[in-house]
Design brief:
single chain, 89 residues, mainly beta, Immunoglobulin-like, six-stranded antiparallel sheet
Length: 89
C-alpha cells in the first residue's frame, strides 16, 4: 500500500499525497478519496493549485478550517448529494 501524507502550512496551503480521486470540490468544501479512506476539507476560498491523480498528489490553497477523515466504505456520497442539492437551489 502506498503512503498517504498531508502537510498543512499556516492553515492556508495544503499538500497531499496518496490521493485516488477528487469526489467533490467547491470554494467551501472538498472531498478527496485517499488510499486510507475519504478526507473531508472545509474552508473558505479553496482552490486546487495542483492535481496529478497519476502521481496521487493534490495541492490546495485557501483558508482551511476543518479536516475530517471517514473510513473507506463510509457513505460519503450522501454528503455530496446534500451539497449538490444546495448548489442547484
Amino acid at each position: 500500500m502506498e503512503e498517504h501524507s498531508l502537510t498543512l502550512n499556516n492553515r492556508g496551503f495544503m499538500e497531499l499525497t496518496g490521493i485516488n480521486n477528487v469526489n467533490l470540490f467547491d470554494e467551501e468544501e472538498v472531498i478527496l478519496e485517499t488510499r486510507l479512506g475519504y478526507l473531508y476539507i472545509k474552508g473558505q476560498s479553496l482552490h486546487i493549485t495542483m492535481l496529478s491523480l497519476e502521481e496521487g498528489k493534490v495541492s490546495l490553497e485557501g483558508t482551511i478550517s476543518m479536516l475530517e477523515y471517514k473510513a473507506a466504505g463510509t457513505d460519503i456520497k450522501t454528503k455530496g448529494k446534500n451539497i449538490l442539492t444546495r448548489l442547484l437551489k
